[in-house]
Amino acid sequence: MADKKQAADHALLALGMPRADALSLACGSAPERPRERCPMLELPEVVTIARQMRGELVGKTVASAHRENSPHKFVFYGCDRETFEATPRGGRVTDVSAGGKWVYVTIGGHTLMFGDIGGRALYHETPATLPEKYHALLRFDDGSAFSITVQGWGFLRVEDNATAAGHEQYGDKGLYTLSDDFTAEEWVRRLRDFGAANAKSIKYFMISGPSVPGIGNSYLQDMLYRAGIHPTRPVADINDAEAERLHAAIRETLSTAIDLGGRDEERDLYGRRGGYARVLGSKTRGKPCPECGALIEKIQYLGGAAYFCPLCQT
Ligand SMILES: [Zn+2]
């Protein structure tokens, strides 16, 4: 059973898809985060990094594992230092996969999980390029290394494989957007059900509600723009045709961004910028909308910036 599921995950990852587990169960609440969310690795960046990590790390043996060399208030470790550092040591990396905003590195009988991270996850061919500050570091037997340096906040933990496979990722409790289960019909149904029970907006639903793991405040802007929906719009006001447009926009935005290796404001495993330039963001604020020429506007909304075209999005 586990092998079958893992095989499916491998196949999905090879296609740039997240893990096959379409729905995960409700989970405990995450620790309180900084109110102003800084840019984080979202699904396209996580899929890109996990794919690159598979290519570089599978088959290598962990010579040593290290937790932070510099304390950071908003790095949340799900295990103590001893577990984090002693468990992976001597293990061989057998797999790396992605799901939502999380990356799972299988090392022997254990999994290093990291996700919901603002920062860098980098490969080092030699120790010469190691960062000064890190919050996780794996050194391998061939002299290469992998580091994570958190800049906003982030979650890291080491679990045994069974626990990791069933782990309820913080915040990742919804529909996996690139899986076969993410159909227009299912999406419309979920929006309708949520709208019937809540007065909340579409932005809330997409990044704070139990909806679409892997999407944060960055890709959200372009998805809503492509669907012609204003970020403050109550979910209850969205009709089925609009919900279907949004479904298509989510697919289009994510697959384009994955093809381009993530956003141009984030870095991949080798420190290179991605190729996806956001249509709406700080760089395009005040510039003309590519569709209608109206100037892109910005408001502060739900603890972060929301950008929109005042004519195309209603
Ligand atoms: Zn416009």
Helix-strand category: alpha+beta
Radius of gyration: 19 Å
Helix content: 25-40%
* Uncertain spans: 1-36
What strand line-up does the widest sheet have?
A: 2-9-5-4-3
CATH architecture of the largest domain: Alpha-Beta Barrel
Strand composition percent: 15-25%
**Structural domains: how many:** 2
Description:
Helix 5 (184-197) crosses helix 8 (240-259) and helix 7 packs across helix 8 (240-259). This protein has a five-stranded mixed sheet. The protein has helices spanning 2-14, 43-57, 81-86, 161-165, 184-197, 202-208, 217-227, 240-259, and strands at 62-67, 75-77, 93-99, 102-107, 110-115, 119-124, 136-140, 145-150, 154-160, 297-300, 305-308. The chain has two domains: 2-165, Alpha-Beta Barrel (N-terminal domain of MutM-like DNA repair proteins), CATH 3.20.190; 184-308, Helicase, Ruva Protein, domain 3 (Orthogonal Bundle), CATH 1.10.8. Helix content is 29%, strand content 19%. The chain is α+β, with helices and mostly antiparallel strands. Zinc ion binds next to loops. Zinc ion is lined by residues 289, 291-292, 294, 309, 311-312.
Features:
314 residues, alpha+beta, N-terminal domain of MutM-like DNA repair proteins, Helicase, Ruva Protein, domain 3, 2 domains, 8 helices, 29% helix, 19% strand, disordered N terminus, binds zinc ion
Helices and strands, with pairings:
Blueprint: H1 2-14, H2 43-57, E1 62-67, E2 75-77, H3 81-86, E3 93-99, E4 102-107, E5 110-115, E6 119-124, E7 136-140, E8 145-150, E9 154-160, H4 161-165, H5 184-197, H6 202-208, H7 217-227, H8 240-259, E10 297-300, E11 305-308
The structure holds zinc ion.
